[in-house]
Structure formats: C-alpha cells, structure tokens
Write a structure and sequence with these properties.
Layout (H helix, E strand, L loop, with lengths): L2 E8 L2 E14 L16 E12 L8 H20 L3 E4 L6 H15 L9 E2 H5 L2
Parallel strand pairs: 3-4
Antiparallel strand pairs: 1-2, 2-3, 4-5
Helix pairs in contact: 1-2
C-alpha cells in the first residue's frame, strides 16, 4: 500500500500524525442503499484513513478529532477530483474507544448515523 503521512506540530513538537491511502471496498460490504444502481464492478474506490495517532502528552485536547476532520477534509478534496466514493477508517481494537468518541463527534457534526467502522460516502459529507 502506498500512503502519505502528514505530521502535525505544536511549537516544534510532534503532537500527532495521520496517514491517508487509496483503498477499495467490496460492493457486498456496504449497505445496499449506499451503492450505485447498475454498478458493474465488484469494488468501489475509496480513501482510507490508515493511521491516526496523538502523542500521549497531548491527549484529551481534541487533537485526534481535529486530525480526523483534517483527514476527512483532505479525502473529500481528493474524492471531488478523482471520483472516489467512500472514506474508510480502520481502527485497532485498542483504539476503538477513542475512535468511537471521534465517530460520535462526527455524527453530531453531520447529523447522520454512521457505523463504528466508519464507512462514509463522500456525498453524505458534501451535502451537510
């Protein structure tokens, strides 16, 4: 997988990073209502938020949520340029509580229910 990692600094200290990569998701892995009618391929293109981390000294300050939103913003700009349909997030089990909080925050922002696996259609986010 080829990816791009963006580092975030505060006063010359690394506070966190986010990694984006291209990915796909199988047509059978999404809700039927999120798919396209008469789509002839077995997978949809997507942008994956592959890694997201915050230095423990900077936790509980909203930096992880900010990084998630920054990653989604970047993914949306890519989706508009290349016809990508989904934003995907893989969360490690030990990070699931933090991811659940960030997904809840995202749900409040876009006023839509999304799964913890965080498969978002780009059109969902652009319309809100």
């Amino acid at each position: 997988m080829i990816s791009k990692t963006n580092l975030f600094f505060w006063k010359s200290e690394l506070v966190g990073y986010i990694t984006l990569a291209t990915d796909t998701i199988g047509t059978k892995e999404i809700y039927v209502s999120d798919g396209l009618k008469r789509y002839k391929y077995s997978k949809y293109p997507g942008i994956k938020i592959a890694r997201l981390a915050v230095d423990s000294r900077f936790e509980k300050r909203g930096i992880g949520t900010y990084l998630l939103f920054a990653g989604i913003g970047k993914a949306l700009s890519i989706c508009n340029s290349v016809g990508c349909r989904y934003i995907l997030v893989d969360s490690k089990k030990e990070s699931s509580a933090s991811m659940k909080n960030m997904v809840s925050s995202l749900q409040r922002k876009i006023r839509k229910k999304i799964s913890l696996r965080c498969i978002l259609t780009c059109s969902q986010l652009l319309l809100n």
